[in-house]
Write a structure and sequence with these properties.
This protein has 500 residues and is mainly alpha-helical. It is built from 18 helices and nine strands. 56% of the residues lie in helices and 7% in strands.
């Protein structure tokens, strides 16, 4: 399959399919024409010796320094080399790959003034899966993701490192082996590659894809817990949720009822107790609120995925040409969305940990063995799995602190307010991984709990889940290294995001 890029209509679902199916990208002819028209404007600026930021001047505080015409191209190379000072562990390959796709898509809007050579080089790198090694730390999130995107650009010009066929290699060596020339940057092109929010947005898109999927997986896990605790189904009655007006809440209630349909382990109000604790009764309200967050974040990310966030921007309608220095590279809208995503994700783990605590606590689990131990006292069972979950949700509370409320001036106070959106995106993925492990722990414990309650009583749909995951997570017949089970279950939950 092929992902056709227009600069206008890219969706998160497109990115998910691109990653799941290992697609290639293709640039539409209309988009390529916009690129050519925009480049022609840059060439006229150079020919007319106009003073335009980043084309004929320096950058940041040096924006008033005019550059010799013979050195315009060298200016762009110097920019990339000097700004490629990211530190820390690299972004995952899928994040860096999506970063290239998003940068290409924004260049195709025709407001950046790049050459078709640059478009072709980016397309080649994407389709050949030559993935730049991009350190995660070092971006302030305005003037865009300068440091991360400079490492991306380095690879295009044959000076950086890349991940290629499972190895980390010099970009120049890979290009030579493929008989491909490094890109020669022209005027404006270095700036066009790095002025933007593609690092934070790419990581945000990956986090979103896996977060939304995990939100759905949390429902069948919660349904197992619900049955293990003989939960009351009345609270999921659609009438209750319709009068609250939140569509996401109603949808979760409907799906929970569907998961539980036909169960012999559930109860009605008054049969065992009148009301369940909030962690069971309020699943639609709590999970539904997280889906509200996801829907908000999806919209903001998709706006940014199709945005012109370069500086300066070129507008040429045939009658009038404008080259305007603005601030579309500022990551504040994305930073807010990604901080919000952190909160919505964290809450899925908070409620999951409280559910799994009810499963292992003999005062709350309705007669199940303490910690589901096969031999209480001799065997600890799930005791420390709950500890691990509690540790992860506590860690999330510190990671969920909003990065976007911070700012440090840079470039001698020329760039005096920044978004820190890339920090928000990185912390968001750390939270996601913690949430996934908490839900993995709940799933392992719930599988054991329903087994003790009697799997013949499970609803058909959750019985299918039980049968599937029992092939990967054995019953707890004696203490073992449960961290291995947690890793297996967490990886299975991650893989669903790209294979469902």
């Amino acid at each position: 399959m092929t992902l056709r890029l227009t600069g206008e209509q890219l969706t998160i679902q497109d990115i998910r399919d691109f990653l799941a199916h290992h697609d290639n990208v293709e640039v539409t002819e209309d988009a390529l024409q916009r690129v050519k028209q925009s480049r022609a404007t840059v060439e006229r600026i150079i020919q007319n010796k106009e003073t335009i930021y980043g084309i004929t001047t320096g950058f940041g505080l040096f924006s008033d320094v005019l550059i010799d015409q013979q050195k315009y191209n060298q200016l762009q190379v110097n920019l990339i080399r000097s700004h490629a000072c990211g530190v820390g562990a690299p972004f995952a390959d899928n994040v860096s790959l999506v970063m290239m796709v998003l940068r290409l898509n924004t260049l195709l809007k025709g407001h950046s003034g790049v050459t078709t050579d640059l478009v072709e080089q980016l397309t080649y790198f994407i389709n050949e899966r030559i993935i730049p090694v991009i350190p995660q730390q070092g971006s302030l999130g305005a003037s865009g993701d300068l440091a991360p995107l400079s490492h991306l650009a380095l690879a295009l010009i044959g000076e950086g490192r890349v991940s290629y066929k499972g190895e980390i290699l010099d970009s120049a060596a890979v290009l030579k082996s493929l008989h491909r020339q490094p890109l020669t940057l022209q005027a404006k092109e270095g700036l066009a590659l790095i002025n933007g929010t593609q690092a934070m947005t790419a990581q945000g898109v990956i986090t979103f894809i896996e977060a939304e999927s995990l939100g759905y997986e949390a429902e069948w896990i919660a349904a197992l817990t619900h049955q293990a605790l003989n939960g009351i189904t009345d609270a999921y009655n659609e009438n209750v949720h319709i009068v609250r007006n939140f569509e996401e809440q109603t949808a979760v209630a409907r799906r929970m009822s569907d998961w539980l349909e036909g169960s012999k382990l559930t109860t009605r109000q008054g049969e065992i107790r009148v009301q369940d604790p909030y962690t069971l009764r309020c699943i639609p309200q709590i999970h539904g609120a997280s889906f509200q967050v996801f829907n908000y974040v999806r919209e903001k990310l998709e706006f940014e995925m199709n945005a012109a966030n370069d500086n300066p921007l070129i507008f040429d309608d045939g009658d009038e040409t404008l080259v305007i220095s603005g601030g579309n590279f500022h990551g504040q809208p994305v930073a807010f969305a990604l901080d919000f995503l952190k909160i919505g994700l964290s809450e899925l783990a908070n409620v999951s940990e409280r559910r799994l605590e009810r499963l292992v606590n003999p005062q709350l689990n309705g007669g199940l063995p303490a910690f589901l131990s096969p031999e209480p006292g001799l065997q600890s069972g799930a005791m420390i799995m709950q500890y691990a979950a509690a540790s992860l949700v506590s860690e999330n509370k510190t990671l969920a602190h909003p990065a976007s409320v911070d700012s440090i001036p840079s470039s001698a106070n020329q760039e005096d307010h920044v978004s820190m959106g890339t920090i928000a995106s990185r912390h968001g993925y750390q939270i996601l991984e913690n949430v996934r492990r908490v839900l993995a722990i709940e799933a392992i414990i719930a599988l054991q709990a329903v087994e003790l309650k009697g799997i013949e009583g499970l609803s058909p749909k959750t019985r299918d889940k039980y049968d599937h995951y029992r092939t990967q997570i054995p019953s707890i017949t004696e203490d073992r290294q449960f961290h291995k089970d947690i890793d297996v279950m967490a990886e299975a939950l991650k893989n669903v995001a790209y294979h469902a």
